[in-house]
Amino acid sequence: MKMIARRSALTTTAALLFAPQALSAVEPADFVFANGRVYTVNPAQPWAGAVAIRGGRIVHVGDDASAFVGPRTRRIDLKGRMLLPGFTDTHNHTYLRAENLFWVTLPGTRTETPTLQQYRAAIDAYKAANRGLRQLRGVGWNMRFIVQAASERGLTPRELLDDLVGLDIPAVIITHGHHEIWANTRAIRNAGVTEATPNPPGAFIERDAAGAPNGVFREFGAQNLIISKLPEPDFTVEEFKASVLDWQANLAPQRGVTAVLTPTHYPSENYLKALQALSLEGRLTTRFDVCLWADETRGLSQVPDLIRTRARYGGPNFKVDSVKIFGTGQTAQGLGLVWDQDVLNKTVAALDKAKFRIFIHDIGPTSTYEAMLDAHAYAIAQNGRRDARHIITHVGDAASPTTARFLELGVRADGHPPPKAFFDTKVPTTISSDYPVGDFSPVAEMARGVQRGVPLEDLIAAHTLRGAEAVFAETAIGSIEVGKMADLVVLERDLFAVPADELAGVKPVMTLFAGKEVFRSAAF
């Protein structure tokens, strides 16, 4: 009988809310969401049934918002669907959307082996559609496939690319993982790279039997030897603007993402100029926090330049307050440190003193996580403690023995998601996609965490409130509370009621950014 009475009460409330209304006693809202499962990520009020929005902000959270309904209010009947704060993706290379729009994309995936005929067809079609090319850039080559295919033909990878592209223009194609490029003879000669060129710190040049570059360059230090000498080493400002707008329209809102931390992996003022222009034009519908790139070969000398760059950029929904350090990668000796430890310590300390938040890429082993934490400990010893919110990303199982040091040093752990040990020990933890390298799906990332035994509420917090904290925005976004910005996502099902093996398939059906609808599924 109690359940019947409760259903009757809910039905009556919904009927009143969605019936035509006269002006209410309070100022009417722009949006009212009702009859849903509103998970607020606010410990003081975890659940609600209705939310009202006015002027881009949340003005009411409770069981009933009928008082906020006026003649122009958009009334959304959730019908039991879930309403969450918008997701923050704390590692998303938004600028790389430009590769898919303006370069040749080679066929095949990480699990599907392509053919040389498919590669040739894609390259020929791209060249035919882009007459007068000064260079050819591409994405998606399969390194294992190409090395094997070249060997079977008695060629180096460089010579195989010469055959596919020709020698009249330089050609450089990057893997989906972005840690290896494939270059033709023209590109290598233009860059002046020979058998006498040493491996850059933390990177290496693959070589043939005679010691000459064979066309494969691993990690960013080696890649930049080639890319920096191309006729067009970066995208134009207009290309970056088009890419950001495309990413905002076709990728982020469909995934419920309303804020991102974007670490760059090469110096690109054109990208910053594009974001600045879009910010001032009022065209950003995602909150962008950008990390500048620290060159492992320049150490302390680059800090003044980074400070000057930070001062030049920023605006509505766009800020530059962080520096990315590429900490570990594939070296000639295997997986290890990219930086000299003493240079790393002093650079981290100098950046921390300059009030940068430091975002470090580290894929292990455990000794490298210790090395990065040593650098943070050095910075604290030099500068004292502050609310820096430094982050180490790609935190995996190899980092689990270091949880106590993460917690003691106040360093945040970011991953896809990080191991359960980090959640258990209450290390501030965030979840990210590493787009376009990883799976750009917050719900799928959370589903992986559930499979690993992490409580769902911790995973949701990691992608919302903890993510907002990571970008210093928790007073504005990250939870559904009165006064906060209405960055919200509607999911087709209540995650807490979905079997674990079905979680990854749950889709967003509506996304709001600052109280404006930026995505709605045709099914909603």
How do you describe this structure in short?
By secondary structure, this protein is of the alpha/beta class. It has 17 helices and 26 strands.
Folded structure, characterized:
The chain is an alpha/beta fold and 524 residues long. The chain is 33% helix and 22% strand. The chain is built from 17 helices and 26 strands. An eight-stranded parallel beta sheet has the order 8-15-16-17-20-21-22-23. A six-stranded mixed beta sheet has the order 3-2-7-24-25-26, with no helix packed on it. Strands 9-10-11-12-14-13 form a six-stranded mixed beta sheet, sandwiched between helices. A hairpin with a 5-residue loop joins strand 13 and strand 14. Helix 11 (341-353) crosses helix 12 (366-383). It is globular, with a radius of gyration of 25 Å. It starts with a helix and ends with a strand. Mean pLDDT is 93; it is low at 1-24.
- Discrete helix count: 17
- Intertermini distance: 32 Å
Radius of gyration: 25 Å
Helix content: 25-40%
Shape: globular
Structural class given helices, strands, pairing?
alpha/beta
How much of the polypeptide forms β-strand, as a percent range?
15-25%
Low-confidence stretches: 1-24
Largest sheet: 8 strands, parallel
> Average pLDDT across residues?
93
Q: How many strands appear in the DSSP assignment?
A: 26
Oligomer: single chain
Tell me the strand order in the biggest sheet: 8-15-16-17-20-21-22-23
Features:
six-stranded mixed beta sheet, disordered N terminus, alpha/beta, 524 residues, eight-stranded parallel beta sheet
